[in-house]
Design goal:
By secondary structure, the protein is mainly beta. The protein contains 2 helices and 17 strands. It has a 12-stranded antiparallel barrel with strand order 1-2-3-7-8-9-10-11-12-15-16-17. Strand 9 and strand 10 form a beta hairpin.
């Protein structure tokens, strides 16, 4: 399927007319990014884009998992775009009670072909000489299995504000937002639990442009519950449907994120990513390939 996708993409691009290309280039936006993967998932020019990501990641709590991430996006104009995506776990280990409610026996069990929650996003961007802004409103639809820790079990939301300023090759950024699901924050790294309840999230870091259009990003993050929290989990650390009335609960998390994106071609990007949770002492590392139907505009290489 991946080979067929890569074969059809150049054919579709070859049929584009010069007039259509000119119209698209007129709608280029300064902010065309998405937390679910590398730049280009949200098209830089007006129109549709379809992407397919395949990733493998290792979580220190439940081992390896393989994930397929299809996404469809549409840019309305240079300021607004929408996209929808849903993760499909080809393989994952989940933490389940194989005993009874009175005498629980929690063990790991492998599952194949299970979905996570669908994420539907609306993005808006604006630019000024001194700052670039990207706002994202995301709605999570309960397509994932909450018993496996892969879904919130309800409709959820997230509102995120991203501010950045490009200084030659370096781009410092800061994010702040609110929502009611940890599953909608930093979607590139899929954790083995979903915290449901009012929470605020913060992130600060920077990205670095590398030669051959590669990019490196590193951030520190904080997820802070604002009220009672309900946590679904596949981990063995006591995070199985825990309810608490304090802010110091299983839903709080903080740590570091890093990702490296290396374009192999205009339509294929190889990525590596790493997440360290300081609160949960959890490490997640992995790599992915992202196939883009519509490639980003060509940029001058950095040497």
């Amino acid at each position: 399927m991946l080979l067929l996708f890569a074969y059809l993409v150049p054919m579709g691009r070859a049929q584009a007319t010069p007039g259509a290309e000119s119209d698209e280039l007129a709608a280029i936006s300064a902010a065309a990014s998405n937390d679910s993967g590398p730049a280009g998932i949200i098209p830089s020019t007006r129109g549709f884009n379809a992407t397919l990501g395949t990733s493998s990641q290792h979580d220190s709590t439940n081992g390896w998992s393989s994930i397929l991430n299809p996404n469809v996006a549409y840019r309305l104009n240079q300021h607004f775009s929408v996209d929808v995506g849903v993760p499909l776990y080809g393989y994952i280990k989940v933490y389940r009670n194989t005993g009874t409610a009175a005498k629980p026996v929690n063990t790991y069990a492998s599952r194949n072909g299970v979905f996570g929650d669908t994420a539907l996003s609306l993005q808006g961007s604006a630019s000024a000489p001194w700052l670039d802004y990207n706002g994202i409103i995301t709605m999570g639809l309960p397509s994932g299995n909450s018993g496996y820790g892969l879904g919130a079990g309800q409709v959820t939301y997230s509102i995120n504000n991203h501010f950045e300023k490009t200084l030659r090759l370096l781009t410092p950024d800061i994010e702040l937002g609110v929502g009611d699901s940890s599953n909608l924050v930093d979607q590139r790294v899929l954790k083995s639990y979903v915290a449901v309840g009012p929470l605020a999230h913060f992130q600060a870091g920077m990205s670095l442009d590398l030669p051959f259009n590669a990019s490196l990003e590193a951030d520190a993050y904080e997820e802070l519950p604002l009220a009672k929290d309900l946590v679904y989990s596949t981990t063995g650390k006591g995070k199985k449907k825990v309810t608490t009335a304090t802010n110091e609960d299983p839903g709080e998390d903080n740590g570091f994120l890093a990702s490296l994106d290396i374009p192999l071609s205009r339509h294929v990007t190889l990525s590596g990513f790493y997440s360290r949770s300081l609160r949960d002492h959890d490490d997640i590392a992995g790599f992915s390939l992202t196939l883009l139907a519509k490639a980003p505009p060509r940029a001058a290489p950095i040497h």
